Inverse folding.
């Protein structure tokens, strides 16, 4: 993946393709930081606080193992997400899994 590919992913929602690839105003998102999915958003509406603290394993063709998982976790000192729409927390890349 090159810089052009990375720029194209930024601001898009993981798992959502065209025609509406971007965020919706009534949703809550975690921003992915680092790794193969850097800059994507993950829709966390309806996730319980403990699910958010567990982070996410996201299937991707862009990681170390194509068709594997990119692992993202919140950092312990990151604030817990507030209620309301928009990007409310960050998940940081922690590795890949087959």
């Amino acid at each position: 993946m090159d810089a052009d590919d990375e720029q194209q992913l930024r601001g898009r929602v993981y798992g959502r393709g065209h025609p509406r690839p971007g965020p919706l105003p009534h949703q809550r998102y975690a921003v992915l930081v680092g790794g193969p999915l850097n800059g994507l958003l993950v829709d966390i509406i309806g996730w319980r606080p403990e699910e958010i603290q567990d982070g996410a394993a996201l299937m991707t063709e862009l990681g170390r193992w194509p068709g594997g998982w990119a692992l993202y976790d919140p950092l312990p000192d990151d604030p817990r997400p507030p209620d309301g729409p928009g990007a409310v927390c960050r998940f940081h890349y922690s590795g890949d899994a087959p």
Remarks:
- The longest helix spans residues 3-9.
- The mean pLDDT is 81.
